[in-house]
Design goal:
By secondary structure, this protein is mainly β. It has one domain: AttH-like fold (Beta Barrel). It is 8% helix and 60% strand. The chain is built from 2 helices and 20 strands. The strands form 2 sheets. The chain has an 8-stranded antiparallel barrel with strand order 1-2-3-4-7-8-11-12. Strands 13-14-15-16-17-18-19-20 form an 8-stranded antiparallel beta barrel. The longest helix has 21 residues. The model has no long low-confidence stretch (mean pLDDT 86).
Length: 344
């Protein structure tokens, strides 16, 4: 387990690898289930750029999305990518998300399709201003320290070893093996927090009061390596906050996460989930999670997918789709909100 210090909240000296990346992420959901969203900024100094995105869930069921990009050869002491800023106010305690500018607006999220469309200029837009403050409710969790690795079951593995699949994936598999050791040296921590501030749309100001999840990571980030992942995070105020992930790479699956409950954060010993997937094979309609904390406590959570935003990521010609889905979670003590993330 890494003992992170205040300097780790700043940017770090880049490694020599092409796909070395440092990123800051924050999602946010209000208590009433009206507003929600997520933002990430990332620095790829060895490729010479910084990029970011904001996805926004509106109270009327519409969704918004914007990407930012700018040249960046040196990311040290940087806190923004284009117009998106993640600023540290007090290490491990207070952060601020700011953005002023347009966002592409989709009344029907199902019509969003491929986000390459957002390069067009004739899509409907809204002018927004985000000014949100994150206040941590618990200490940061070493994300990698919580991960446990296992072999994928024989039946699942055999289903992947059809001749066409094998020959199509032999080259990528060799690359993944080479990169796994390098990627294992990455650092990554997460924590949940209260979020307050304002969201302005076309000059109309809305007060925001809710919760969310923040993370910071740095190291080699090559999206060609994972086959898929499933990540869930949600908050029931500060009564219960959870974060759970499963990642598949070749014949292995890594699983981890944590629970915050009754003033204590602890790693997950194990967890499982079921998802009702729609006809696309990518988007879930409902999920159910069984989370087992290291202390032995069990938490059963169900989730209803409300809106889905497919974020497209291109790494060396390999296209990954990361589906960011706002989710209404239910637990025996009430309702909370968060993200269900399905990557393929």
């Amino acid at each position: 387990m890494v003992d992170f210090g205040p300097l780790d909240e700043k940017t770090h000296q880049a490694g020599p690898q092409k796909h070395w990346n440092e990123s800051f992420y924050l999602n946010f959901f209000d208590l009433e289930g009206n507003w929600g969203g997520a933002s990430r900024i990332g620095f790829s100094p060895n490729q010479g750029f910084a990029d970011g995105f904001i996805c926004l869930y509106f109270p009327n069921g519409a969704t918004g999305f914007i990407r930012t990009w700018e040249s960046c050869r040196d990311h040290l002491n940087r806190s923004s990518a284009g117009s998106i800023e993640h600023a540290c106010v007090k290490p491990f305690e207070k952060w601020q998300l700011r953005y002023v500018g347009p966002i592409y607006y989709f009344e029907n999220p199902a019509s969003m399709g491929d986000f390459a469309q957002t390069m067009l200029t004739d899509l409907p837009k809204r002018d927004i201003e985000l000014n949100l403050q994150f206040q941590a409710v618990h200490e940061v969790i070493d994300f990698h320290a919580s991960m446990k690795r296992e072999l994928i079951s024989g039946s699942d593995l055999l289903s992947k070893l059809r001749p066409n699949y094998f020959f199509d994936h032999l080259g990528p598999a060799i690359r993944k093996v080479k990169l796994l050791r390098v990627m294992s040296g990455a650092q990554h921590y997460e924590h949940a927090g209260r979020i307050e501030g304002t969201i302005s749309v076309d000059g109309e100001i809305h007060t925001f009061n809710g919760f969310g999840q923040r993370d910071h990571s740095w190291g080699v980030r090559d999206m060609r390596v994972p086959t898929n992942w499933r990540w869930f995070s949600g908050q029931f105020k500060d009564d219960l906050c959870f974060n759970a992930i499963k990642v598949e790479v070749l014949a292995f699956r890594a699983s981890g996460g944590y629970i915050y409950h009754q003033g204590k954060a602890e790693a997950l010993k194990s967890w499982s989930f079921k998802a009702d997937i729609d006809g696309s094979g990518l988007r879930a309609k409902n999920v159910s999670l069984s989370l087992f904390a290291a202390s032995g406590k069990r938490f059963d959570v169900t989730g209803e997918i409300l809106e889905n935003i497919p974020v497209r990521v291109n790494t060396g010609g390999c296209i990954s789709i990361v589906n960011e889905a706002r989710t209404r979670f239910s637990w025996n003590r009430g309702t909370g909100y968060g993200i269900s993330e399905f990557m393929e």
